[in-house]
Amino acid sequence: MDFDRDTVASAVVGTGGAWLLGSALVHAQSGKWNSAQIKGLAYAGAGFLMTAAAQRWLQHTGNRGIAISLMGTLFALRGMYLLLRERAAERARKPRPPE
After folding, report:
1. Is residue 2 within 8 Å of residue 56, measured between CB atoms?
2. 73: nearest Cα among 21, 9, 13, 2
3. How far apart are the C-alpha atoms of 36 and 83, rounded to whole Å?
């Protein structure tokens, strides 16, 4: 296996996606996280995996590979947006200490 720049980048992004999906599964079973947080992790993980797969195996197909990579990017951004929105809502619920 040739360890060029594209292979390493694809491996890092794919590993991050798998970690996010695994975290979503583990946290869904633990019951500590709400559904919006789990959905955000799942979207982000699936998006990173789609992007890594498109870069690794569909790069030579042209427009199809680019479209799947962009869809993966949109999924990842959607997941991160859900996580940030839930974090902002959680911070708004907590009272701030007096300064």
Report:
1. no
2. 13
3. 7
For 59, 71, 89, 96, the CA distances from 99, given in Å and listed in that order, are 54, 45, 21, 9
Is the dihedral angle over the CA atoms 7, 10, 15, 21 positive or is it negative?
negative
Three-state SS sequence of the chain: CCCCHHHHHHHHHHHHHHHHHHHHHHHHHHCCCCHHHHHHHHHHHHHHHHHHHHHHHCHHHCHHHHHHHHHHHHHHHHHHHHHHHHHHHHHHHCCCCCC
Question: And the tokens for 85?
Answer: 């929105």
At 2 the pLDDT is: 67
Q: How confident is the model at residue 60 (pLDDT cuts 50, 70, 90)?
A: confident
- pLDDT, tens only, 73-97: 999 999 999 999 998 998 888 887 7
